[in-house]
């Protein structure tokens, strides 16, 4: 059996989670400019007719009380990595299909599918406060259709015997690969449900939509799908970059705080994926669009923001860019391998609490959201900062402040 796991209204749900004031309100994630498009809509927004892919301008018209939030892909990537880590703890074969969905091959998993699905949903809710819908079926096609049918926040198991009763009444548009032009062609021949397709000779389908697509449609209409679950090959590098709204001088403090933010995000994703990297690459794009990159390879793999940041600053300082005007800065970690040993030493320090501290931060964030804790130097002036002896932990208003996470 194959399991398809899909987070409900993922980007919108992450925004609602980290801004408690948005809970229960219609929220859309999308660029807020005049040409923005809705990337994700909360169920409250969907109830008013807001849809993914809709221009934000139109979404605001159909739902005047809509709250539109600009996307934060770094945050979604971190949350996604945390959820994928949960899924990977239940099956060795996990294939992420996008940031918010994945297929699991259940062969060799020591739970009945329904029990496993409930465990997964419970774990993701407990650790991330995100609703995960799950479909289980004899192949990828049925598992995915089942998770769609289970939404929101549901579970549907379709046994092989139940496939015809589940599949045949569905609209043909639910099948993968049936887009607007295929739908138009099928409709001309009066074919609107999967049952219609199943009752049509494959030769006829091939004539209507073309040989390859017709072949696939006929197979899907019979509930057949031989696509295997292909576990994701380990990423070989990971990182991010920031373009500044205005060019920044190389000495400006913003360079360092940006490197720290990028190091933080990369380190969280490394640890969530259970990997560490040995090579830190810094990329700089100048005001005239020239781009340079410099790397440094460490003796041991690291997965801590402290180490990534220290290395990135050394690399950056070694570039000798004193007078440069900088447009973009990036940080990438390469040479990824198995996770760092928990007792590893951070650069140049014997006894230190960085590893323990950052892993504690991971656990707090898994529970309360990414904005709940971070280095004090990333806080803007005026923000509330909670200090404890020997460490500095900040709370961001508008994150999950108020839950007592520090
Ligand atoms: Mg989803």
From TrEMBL:
Homology family: Belongs to the DNA polymerase type-Y family.
GO biological process terms held by the UniProt record: DNA repair; DNA-templated DNA replication; error-prone translesion synthesis; SOS response
Protein name: DNA polymerase IV
Entry keyword set: Cytoplasm, DNA damage, DNA repair, DNA replication, DNA-binding, DNA-directed DNA polymerase, Magnesium, Metal-binding, Mutator protein, Nucleotidyltransferase, Transferase
Annotated region described as Disordered, given as residue ranges: 372-406
Cellular component, GO annotation: cytosol
Domain UmuC: start-end pairs: 2-179
Substrate discrimination (site feature) positions: 11
Required cofactor(s): Mg(2+)
Localisation: Cytoplasm
Species for this entry: Streptacidiphilus fuscans
Record keyword Transmembrane present: no
Active site, UniProt feature: 101
Name of the gene: dinB
Cofactor binding description: Binds 2 magnesium ions per subunit.
Annotated EC: 2.7.7.7
